[in-house]
Amino acid sequence: MKTKIFLVALALALLIPASAALAFELKQSDGAVNVSSDQTIDDNLIATGASVVIDGTVNGNVYTAAQTVTVNGTINGDLFAGAQSVNIAGKVNGHLFAGASDVTVTGEIKDDLYVGAGTMNINNTKSRNAVLAGGMVQTNDQAGFSKDLFVFAGSATINGEVGQDLKVGAGEISVNNKIGRNAKLESSDSVTLGSNAIVDGNLDYTAAQEVSKEDGAQVKGETVYTPVEKAQKDTKDKGKDDKKPAIPFLPFAFFGIIIKIIGFIGLLVIAILTAAICKNYTKIFIEKLQTKTWPALGWGFLTLVATPIVILILLVIIIGIPIGLLLIPMYVILLYFAKVFASICTGFVIIKALGKKEPHLIWSAVLGVIVISILLAIPFLGGLVKLVVLAFGIGGIILALKEYSKSTVKDK
Predict the structure, then answer these.
(1) Alpha-carbon distance 73 to 90, whole Å?
(2) How far is CA 386 from the centre of its chain?
(3) Which range is least confidently modeled, 152-166, 233-247, 310-324, 381-395?
(4) What are the structural domain ranges in the chain?
(5) At what angle are helices 279-291 and 381-411 packed, to 10 degrees?
(6) How far apart are alpha carbons 140 and 117 in whole angstroms?
(7) Least confident of 227-231, 267-271, 273-277, 350-354
(8) Are strands 198-199 and 178-179 parallel, antiparallel or unpaired?
């Protein structure tokens, strides 16, 4: 549990400076959103559409969600991207946070990379630290990381230079460049050191067989080999000694940690986009939670508990199976956005309590996600907080939808 709190603290250290500014420019389209090569945006940018292409310059952070995100220009800040495909060929003078099915980075990332993807290619990129999690992760020989590189994947091919430590968990691992300090590699299959691999420090690895070293590969420090079978046995024995359930051996044991970080980033991006795009509805949600707090909690708790029961009944009744299957994803989406809206409302109330008459919704989203994430990471209390957040969030969504539909009908 301490690890969770540490991860939140780490995320805060990275994200608070990136999100502190209150000025935002919103670009939204059902089709393409473009920042042309002759265009300069002197604010933080929120962009949503089928595709987002940045060929110009953004002097601020960029928050984007689309099917495809392409950056050929310059971002003088951090980039938060959620998409099916992300392609960074330009320059990001900050951190890169990306979650996608496919990520390709050939441009320059000044600070750190935090990327989760099915397929990932990091080519010709110079950056500091990087945390890469995916099905297949590759870095070419022109890529470079001045500090540490952490990789968690099904298959990892590291051809880029690492200035300090390399830590990899994968099924198959291949390293073919200089590692400035130590390399710790955990594989369920094989580890290969190519002819250009030079480990200046120690090599500590776990694999099904001993490392395959091509001619020219060097390890200047000690080499420690642990067979997969021994690692599995040690893990089980440790579980018995500690009187706790043994944790199964995984070559990418820290993959869950990366998922939590990506989940935090995703929640932050979705909350910011929601606050920017659905301003009126968000304001109604906040107003309803403040004026009808207990009814919101009641409706929310009832919906939270009753919906799974209704789904189960429908799945048992043959004629109700289609409806039950339809309700499952709807319920999951409802739970997620309950957390999103509850986070925004939490940030809004805190900022208002500090003396701000009209809190900025986007800043409320940032603060709220941070506060809720910290509370959820607290042992024992986290479970209760989650229940309350979901109940208030669902109840607020129901009451706000009712009010919003009334106002829409009046406008017509």
Answers:
(1) 5
(2) 19
(3) 233-247
(4) 2-241, 278-411
(5) 120
(6) 17
(7) 227-231
(8) parallel
Q: What is the mean pLDDT of the chain?
A: 83
**Which residues have CB under 8 Å from 323's CB, separation 6+?**
314
SS3 of residue 251 by DSSP = coil
Helix, strand, coil fractions of the chain, as percent rounded to 5: 40, 35, 25
pLDDT tens sequence across 187-220: 888 899 999 999 999 999 988 889 999 999 999 9
Q: How confident is the model at residue 395 (pLDDT cuts 50, 70, 90)?
A: very high
pLDDT of residue 1: 45
For residues 394-408, average pLDDT: 85
pLDDT at 407: 66
* Phi, psi of 65, rounded to the nearest 5 degrees: -135, 125
Distance CA(240)–CA(183), nearest Å, equals 29
**Which of 325, 328, 326 minimizes the C-alpha distance to 308?**
328
SS3 call for 123: coil
Distance CA 57, CA 90 (A): 10
pLDDT of residue 23: 57
3-state secondary structure labels for all residues of 9-55: HHHHHHHHHHHCCCCEEEEECCCEEEECCCCEECCEEEEEEEEEEEC
d(CA 162, CA 150): 10
Indicate the SS3 state at residue 63.
Answer: strand
Cα 154 versus chain centre, distance: 18
Q: What are phi and psi of 131, to 5 degrees?
A: -125, 115
Strands (E), 144-216: 144-145, 149-158, 161-162, 166-175, 178-179, 183-193, 198-199, 203-207, 212-213
Give dist(CA 178, CA 259) in Å, integer: 28
Q: Between these two residues, 238 and 141, which has the higher pLDDT value?
A: 141
Give the least confident one: 2-11, 112-121, 284-293, 381-390: 2-11
The Cα 331–Cα 311 span in angstroms is: 10
In one-letter notation, the amino acid at residue 245 is: P
Say if CB 101 and CB 84 are below 8 A apart: yes
